[in-house]
Amino acid sequence: MSERVDPPLRATEAETLVAFLDYHRDTFRAKVSGVDPAGLAATVGPSTMTLGGMMKHLTLVEASWFSRVYLGGELGEPWDSVDWKDDPDWEWRTGSTDPSADLFAAYDAAVGLARSQVATALADGGLDSLSARPSRTDDAPFSLRWILLHMLEEYARHNGHADLLRESVDGTVGE
């Protein structure tokens, strides 16, 4: 697994949130690095969750929260062509069979774009800046702070899943 940079012990709130999110992104990237296509499609027990599906899901999550919700844009392809009502777990299902090079390229591009979008948002309005799209539940916008914390929660959950899946694939364990 690759080296990660520990978040700073003393920094601003924004620097701390971004550093922890990058730490979790790097943790996930390390957990999927070096896994062959069969490993990306492997499951544990009765679960259908795979590392490939998780990578595609996190690619969608990055684009959804930063490009779509925060900035108000569209997701683009391949997401816009999906019939989400008929196949709500499309990214999980197809991620287990997509070519690994495509999965890694899409994930890395989505993370790179999200990092740039967050840096711009922090420079323009800070953590209190509001999303272009509102919440579905109360029609209120999200703060950038809320989105960053939600992304931390998303990665923390899936890094735990990735631990189990990676260990089942080749015995690799880690933080």
UniProtKB/TrEMBL annotation:
It holds the Pfam family MST. This is DinB family protein. InterPro entries: DinB/YfiT-like, MST-like. It comes from the Bacteria. SUPFAM superfamilies: DinB/YfiT-like putative metalloenzymes.
